[in-house]
Design goal:
4 helices; mainly alpha; two-stranded antiparallel sheet; 2 strands; single chain
Length: 136
């Protein structure tokens, strides 16, 4: 069950469905959200045995900001030439470490969906950013 209406006559969401989705979540890849929302709704249940609705989503996008190697993907086992300069700290998720400069974030990581598998084949960051934000 999806947390928003989707027309049943098509496997692809309609333009109206995407606009409805975009009005509540902002600049997030609509197709990724559709997939993750359906998975989250199917796997997350409240005390009554019914699917929980996704109430909010914060999409963190650092354009020109710190590297993933200095924030959420430290790679402490990598050689000095690859890993970032900062140390990791434990988070509220057992076995997960993030940058030592993010102690407040470390406390709430159990509420975060950390995606480390995104990639693109674009040669420029601008076109890659457009693709990850829009799905096109």
């Amino acid at each position: 069950m999806l947390p928003f209406p989707v027309e049943l006559h098509s496997l692809r969401p309609s333009r109206r469905d995407l606009l409805h989705l975009g009005s509540g979540l902002g600049a997030v890849s609509a197709l990724s959200v559709l997939k993750s929302a359906s998975l989250a709704a199917a796997s997350t249940v409240n005390g009554m045995g019914t699917p929980r609705m996704i109430r909010s989503c914060i999409f963190v996008f650092y354009y020109g900001g710190p590297s993933h190697l200095d924030t959420y993907d430290l790679k402490p086992q990598a050689p000095d030439s690859v890993r970032g300069e900062f140390s990791g700290i434990a988070t509220s998720v057992p076995g997960l470490q993030i940058c030592e400069h993010m102690p407040h974030m470390a406390r709430v990581m159990h509420k975060v969906a950390l995606v480390r598998s995104m990639h693109h084949t674009n040669r420029l960051h601008d076109s890659a950013s457009t693709e990850t934000h829009t799905g096109r």
